[in-house]
Design goal:
By secondary structure, the chain is of the alpha/beta class. It is built from seven helices and eight strands, in the order E-E-H-H-E-H-E-H-E-H-E-H-E-E-H.
């Protein structure tokens, strides 16, 4: 197996960000939404907030949200195994102001990586860093990667169920990741380099 450069998102890919966001947002709003209510990638819209309101709340409570998130089963173990064979870049859309809490969280759960990037434009970052495959939950990134004919592992969430494309491989559990990467690796290895 050739060494791949794998981009890995954190929120709702490596860890359950939905529960942490709902806990905080429910406390702030007085509502009691549950994970079963979530049908929008942008959870704050379910509270009737605009982007400015969300930013104010998120910037005030983001440290607690990110420090209290819990990893999905087998995510840390799988990433540790991948790290020993491939290049791992954590690609998160979190603001850089949450770098310290993010790095501490990764360290606390023993999740290794070669690089970490805080960006709102993962497509450009992946292109610049020559990432072979991105593992993420965002439907908009899945569509962008599909249009570029690049492999994308879409971590299944209720808000991304309509995404369908041959370059998008839906992942339901971290136990599936290594097998899917082996398939992608064999496909990429068999392709001729572009002259």
């Amino acid at each position: 197996m050739s060494k791949l450069h794998i981009g890995i998102d954190l929120d709702n890919t490596v860890l359950d960000a939905t529960t942490a966001h709902l806990t905080c947002y429910n406390k702030v709003s007085g509502l009691s939404l549950t994970a079963e209510d979530v049908s929008d990638f942008y959870i704050y819209r379910m509270y009737g907030w605009d982007q400015a309101e969300r930013n104010q709340i998120y910037h005030r409570h983001g440290h607690d949200i990110h420090s209290s998130s819990v990893p999905y089963p087998l995510a840390p173990e799988t990433i540790r195994n991948l790290y020993s064979k491939h290049q791992i870049t954590i690609m998160t859309a979190r603001p850089a102001m949450f770098r310290d809490v993010t790095v501490k969280w990764l360290d606390a759960y023993g999740i290794p990586y070669h690089n970490i990037v805080f960006t709102e434009n993962k497509r450009l970052e992946c292109e610049a860093a020559s990432v072979d495959v991105l593992i993420d939950d965002a439907p908009h990134y899945a569509n962008e990667f599909a249009l570029l004919n690049r492999p994308y592992f879409l971590f299944h969430q209720p808000y991304n169920t309509t995404v369908q494309h041959e370059q998008v491989r839906r992942i339901f559990h971290w136990s599936e990741v290594e097998g899917q990467l082996a398939l992608i690796n064999s496909i990429l290895s068999s392709q001729s380099p572009i002259p």
